Amino acid sequence: MRAPLALAAFSLVISGALVAQTPPPAQPGILGPKLAAKSMAAEAIPGVVAAGEPITLIHDGLPGADGIVGMPDGTAVFIEQNSPRIVRINLDDTLTTLLPDSPGARALGVDSRGRLLGLMLSTPAGKADHLRVLYPAGSAAVLATEVGGKPLFQANDFVVTKRDGVYMTDAGTLMKPAGTEPTSIYYLPKEGTPRRVAEGIVMPNGIALSPDDRTLYVNDSRGDHLVGFDVQADGGLTNRRNVAAYQITDEMRKTFAYQADGLCVDADGRIYVAMPLSVQVFSPAGAFLGRIPLTKKMQNLAFAGKDRRSLYMVSQGSIWKMRTLAHGPLDRAK
Q1: What would the DSSP string read from start to end of 97-139?
Q2: CATH code of 252's domain
Q3: What is the pTM of this model?
Q4: What range defines the domain where residue 238 resides?
């Protein structure tokens, strides 16, 4: 959604008198400015990226871009929002259509068999209400449509464990005041009954697992902290805590209706948070390590490439790429 533009003061003539009128301040927009710089230079983040490393805009002007994941062959796949396509970023950074007719995709993941999973919207409902296998051809299957006997409400993002369990956020909506609708985290085991394992985060959005699958991270898009949980053997979550404080300025709060969005981790457990105009990087203990500067509000990001040292960052029809010192996990998509 395009951010509302601030309007200049205007005048009205009332009963022959000229009366100066000043409109109310513009409300924050969901995605903010849409400027895509062609290239930027990274700031040094020890172990993550060298100073001056190019951050290159490799594609722009797409209908939309979100839900990116790395594939086993080193390519990356993303949802082309506002179109029916799911698109592959090849190893040479060209784009090809992977699935031409997948309207309503909200998020993507990859299981241990290399199958591409999608959180999909049913057109009549207009809500992300089922998780299914999308690719390769011939493997299509619906994996989940409900939790606790109730249809998925506003499912938003998910992450796949090494044993093919799925953790999923149900984020409510920005269209209503915070707390108006219930929000949840679901666990969908490979075998067994899906269940709610946490609730009460104001707007749970991006979700990721530590490299050892022992810690679950969740972005609270309407909050100030990255939330963490300990993962139990049965998939349950305990020890909810604030892992890291987002670096949020007053200007960010004025410009953007929400802050943190997508998440990914590297092989050493560092956490990468998609934020307005940057990616913020944190240690596994939650220490702020630095930021990767960008010129749009990031929606999602993922490591890809044969060596998993290419970080792809997507938003609003733009795709950036940066080579890193760190690499993504070698045994999972995100």
Answers
A1: EEES--TTEEEEEE-TT--EEEEEEETTTTEEEEEEEEESTT-
A2: 2.120.10.30
A3: 0.88
A4: 10-323
